[in-house]
């Protein structure tokens, strides 16, 4: 496509051109933009870019000397700016470039839409400050786009009129300067009948507020009826909350919290001011007042030079910072082609690290000077802090003693727990803790449930903060060493029953022992670990696969699997009665029932054979009781 000789075309003469835009508009609607609503953002962005160029051309002009005016009455949508404007050569340069992009896009095979999108993405950055690909986004909602523009680069610049249609045809006219008395650009859309959802006056005003509330240039809206605030109603009447001045620090804090509530819909536990001068970033992080599910990340509102870029920008903060939601405005972050997310580059990585440091500093201040805020924060977000403390030594030193854990003394902080237990034992799983908690507590052992995410690793680091405390893993030997043996006479009297019980439970690789321990209400304790059960399962498979390659592999891996232990409590009246049973079948049934009850108390998933045993032993005991009564 060649540019026309504008000198050969007198002012007011129509020149009609044709560019095949169908493939390009399809790429925009299906692969670049997430919703037709972005058309208004793109028009606002083009206007902002034009104003920025105008200020560069006329530096002494104050920031609010030029503005943007919106109009929508249901039949048209109009965006007018006082920006740098366009010459006819600008218009044709843009269209010639779009024509080349369009021709390439039209040649993209249907199976390779991303390649076409990539070419548009490469072009996108070149159009900032011109019409841009963004102007063509208007074809997502409009049948016709009408542009009237006058350049500010020369005092006698003519007015250029461009009128484009969705079929790719457009006309250009050069009009007298008086056709647009002031420099700038007016874009008028004729909406399609099916685009009313996005072009109604109320929707246009809402979209302008949504995308442009933080713009630094004045933006006004008029619906032609005096509604929606009246003619010239401001879209962005105030600067960002963090850019205003307040009479006191308390007033500033309350205003930022109110802004966070307006944006996110919740009252923040606290607000953290964010300020990174190197990239021109300012904003706030709002601390969520309630617990966030582990691993769930919230999107953040990111503005670039005042224009809303994304409401779901997860990449602005590290994964562990899921206890805050941010709204920021930055100068130097790089938008992607669609202007709906950020490029993952060195600048974004540096911003993410710097914002993470701001969150750490806030936690440090709360720990040092506001224990009430810290307590409320940890109550809601201890998991987030634990995930951070695992990898951050500074947070570990500050907060580990204050983090809550499940222990044999209830839910308490490690600092409180270590005051009464100089030796802290930690389990490797939740089920192990459930097995031993009551007995360990009665024996005076201090045990922490290490089965939750991060907990075991963090408890083992407690001596780094409290050197006087020692930490060890809890194993069956440690626990059984704290259970008292029965006297020799009692053990001999129970020998026959114990032999019957061991035989009955051999199928579960379970030994049976008689001890005394508190609480006396507990008839039995099943000491078993997940690792031991896995090892026994592997050994069983090896025995069943004797010979052959698979059997050799399992045999090479096989170790002496630790057996489970059913420890009967001689202090319990039921156990004292059971060990005197001399009827073999009843002795076996009672041992199975005691095993089943202990397995259920451990709260671990039952194997099918254990569920079957529990049902069978219950029915057998019931049948025995009925026979005895009859």
Task: Explain what you see.
The radius of gyration is 37 Å and the shape is elongated. The longest helix is centred in the middle third of the chain and has 24 residues. The protein has 630 residues and is α+β, with helices and mostly antiparallel strands. The strands form five sheets. The protein has a nine-stranded mixed β-sheet with strand order 1-6-5-4-7-3-2-8-9, covered by helices on one side. The protein has a five-stranded mixed β-sheet with strand order 10-11-14-12-13, with helices on both faces. Strands 20-21-23-22 form a four-stranded mixed β-sheet. Helix 13 links the parallel strand 17 and strand 18.
Low-confidence regions: 1-9, 99-131
Return the structural class.
alpha+beta
Shape: elongated
- N-to-C span: 107 Å
**How many extended strands?**
23
Percent of residues in beta strands: 15-25%
Largest sheet: 9 strands, mixed
Helix percentage range: 40-55%
Instruction: Count up the helices.
Output: 23
- Rg of Cα set: 37 Å
Strand order of the largest sheet: 1-6-5-4-7-3-2-8-9
Let me know the average pLDDT. Answer: 82
Nutshell version of this structure?
The chain is 43% helix and 18% strand. With 630 residues, it is of the alpha+beta class. The strands form five sheets. A nine-stranded mixed β-sheet has the order 1-6-5-4-7-3-2-8-9, with helices on one face.
Looking at this protein, list some descriptive labels.
18% strand, 630 residues, 43% helix, alpha+beta, single chain
